[in-house]
Task: structure prediction
Amino acid sequence: MHIRYLGTGSAEGFPGVFCQCPACEAARAEGGRNIRRRASMLIDGALLVDLSPDLLVNSLDGKVDLGGLQYLLITHIHAAHFYVSELKNLRTPYALGADRERVGVFGGAAVRTRMELVLGAEEMERLAPFLYFEELKLFEPHPLGPYTVTPLQARHGKGAFIYLIEKDGRALLYGNDTGFFPEETWDYLTGRHIDFVSMDCTNPIHSDTQNHMTLEDNITVKRRLFQQKSASAHTRYLATHFSHTSGLLHRPLEERLRLYGIGVAYDGLEVEV
Ligand SMILES: [Zn+2]
Ligand SMILES: [Zn+2]
Ligand SMILES: [Zn+2]
Result:
């Protein structure tokens, strides 16, 4: 699998859209890897995990080609991860010349409800030749062309998923917006080998919510994955979905996480899994 991080920031972005804290001001001044769009990931140019409000921005530099998009996998319905209104732009006359099959949207039942609510019945009908929806059930593997995706329980409000994404014998664990995994998720992962972990680290230093993870949580997750043989020395572990509230720009984040063998994802990072 060829992975490209389109966004590695939390809901408000980094710098936060209206924020003028020292970290956001420094990120604006220094640019580069300090700029984090809303979290999403493109796999093989075909499978998009989460539909962020920054997808248009992602496509502007010519490095992201959405012409081959076939599957859209949604972790949960918070607006930073599922910017529903964008779906309308898949149909004519907003998208012309695209020679693609209907795009499949995959996620929990709440994803369909949100689509119907935001788009309305008339728009859903207009979109039908361009889009279809399939509901995924917790812990049930589901084929998406060459991929098998399995939704695992996240700790992040109702209906939020972590995904295990497999292709050609390689496995990626992708968690956006989750606190420390519930036991059912640990049970499912026991004995399964993961090649690449990409995990929520919204505020590496402290978190005032159960719904996201700190660096401490990530260290515990990584250790437990090793203990239960879901990870090995070959497993790559990256943290993502960073908020500005830690005050840490990219480089100090890297220095801090490196001590624990955890890499820091950044927008535009490409990984071969
Ligand atoms: Zn800020
Ligand atoms: Zn969320
Ligand atoms: Zn989020």
The chain has a mean pLDDT of 96. The domain at 2-265 is CATH 3.60.15.10 (Metallo-beta-lactamase; Chain A).
